[in-house]
Structure formats: C-alpha cells, structure tokens
Amino acid sequence: AFKLDEIFFLLPSYSGASGDNFEHFENVANQMKNLFKINDEVMKLMVMKRLTGVAQIWSVSLQNLMTMNLQELFRSMKEVFSVKTSSLELYKRLEKRKWNVRESFSQYCVEKQILAMPLLLQESELIDYIVEGIPDTQLRNQAKMRKFSKVTDLRSAFALIKLQQNSSRISVVCYSCHQPGHIAARCHQDYQQYSRRNQTSPRGNLIGTVDDMQDKLTELDIH
Fold first, then answer.
1. How many domains does the chain have?
2. What is the mean pLDDT of each run of 10 residues along the chain (223 residues)?
3. In this structure, how many other beta carbons lie within 10 angstroms of the beta carbon of residue 206?
4. Deepest in the core among 27, 40, 69, 178, taking most CB within 10 A?
C-alpha cells in the first residue's frame, strides 16, 4: 500500500497558463487514480491542491466546487483551459457573456474574469470587455467616460446598480421632497416646504424611477 503523501508529488502542478497542457495533467491524474486505487473524492482533493496560478484562482471562484465530483471538475477545467479550444472561440465566449438582471454586477464581473483567464488579457483589455457586456447603453457610456484602470474600481462604482427587466430605468427618489423622478440637487420645491415635510416624513429611499441617467449616476457617485 502507498501513502498519499508519498505519491502526491507524482501529480504535476497545473497553472492554467498557455504553456501548460491540460490533457496531460488530466491523463496523469486518471492514471494515478487507477494505478494506486485512489477513490474519486481523494483524487479530487489532490487535483485541487496541485492547482496554481490562474487555475487556482479559477477553482476558488467556483460556487459549486465542493459539490462537484472528479469528472465534473475535469469537464469544467477542460471548458476553460483545454488547448483544443481556439483563442477565437474563447474571445467569442467572452464577448457573448452579458450582464443580466438575475445577477449583481460583481457576480457578472467574476464570471467575465473567469472566461478571460486563458486569454491572459491586460487589465485594461478586460475592463473593455466587461464594459461592453453592460446592456444598458447609458450605463455603458458612463462607464467608458470614467476610464477605469482597475476592475475593482469598476465593480465598486456599479455595486449599487441593478438592471431592470426590459428597462434601462433606475429607481431613485428625491431626498428633499420625497417625490420620484429627480434627486435633491435638482429639486425645485421650496426649502421651507421641504423642512415642514421633513418633520413628519422620513428620508426617502431608492424607490421611484427616473429617465435621466446622469441624475442616477450622480446619486450613486458615478460621474
């Protein structure tokens, strides 16, 4: 019988970089599994411990990693890292991925980053692909105007924004008069009237709607 710590390093590390061959890594893992009669769960843990670099970052971003079996893990890795997938196909997948109403902007960014990993893009290029995947034209243009240099800054700026189903309108209400359709900086109501109202009415929340995207982005501190 073999001890796992004695055979662990027979499995090569895998970084997901362009020089690494995923098929070779998968074949060695399966051969070790059969030769040493290692069960799937233990082999999966060994595979995960041998991931480095981009591949390791990719693995920890998977929400269902712990429930995957060994073959499901290999299939997911193959979709992302297999050398049989052409660069053109990877770029198409990256361009096709759009932000949708069922997810937060942060979730969308993570998925986009995972798709971009095999392409080894510069951060500025990745930001361009993330921005182009924003379906709302006005939001997309505002993101371009900001000229973000870091993905983390882009994610923070859009953290509070949620897409509306079949609409580019964002909910907002004036903090002064509590009426929808504008922000306090553009409120035309008399200040004294607002003061009287404010004594009996709590400050508004983001519950109205507005067509003016500049108002929306000003309210959310996106200039």
1. 2
2. 76 86 91 91 94 89 88 90 73 92 89 82 94 93 94 92 65 53 55 46 38 49 48
3. 15
4. 178
The residue type found at 135 is P
- Does residue 127 sit in the same domain as residue 94? yes
Q: Would you say 69 and 33 are in contact if contact means Cβ atoms under 8 Å apart?
A: no
Q: Can you tell me the distance from the alpha carbon of 87 to that of 65, in angstroms, rounded to the nearest whole number?
A: 25
Phi, psi of 37 (to 5 degrees): 55, 50
* Residues 49, 28 share a domain: yes
Residue finishing a domain among 81, 98, 126: 81
Domain boundary among 81, 114, 130: 81
Tokens of 100: 């949708």
The position carrying tokens 């004294």 is 192
Same domain, 9 and 33: yes
